[in-house]
Amino acid sequence: MKINGKKLARPSHEVVVIPRNDGDIIIKAQAVLSYDEFEKLYQMPEPPTVIKPGGTNGIKVIKTDDPKYVQAVNDWSSAAWLG
Question: Which domain holds residue 38?
């Protein structure tokens, strides 16, 4: 993988400390070089389709506004971020 022409051999990590009176919050951040393994295990949801009247065999419509599909995409994207 290249970013701005520089090859990344392996991801480095950064530690961020947020001081708090009741205990510091420590965050470790690291670049994700590939989502291939995640996508094999947890595939992105497919939107439902319906056939509406029209043409010789009807018109296929993809329902990206379906509430169950929207929720499934939200769940999938949250899982991708949480790893």
Answer: 2-82
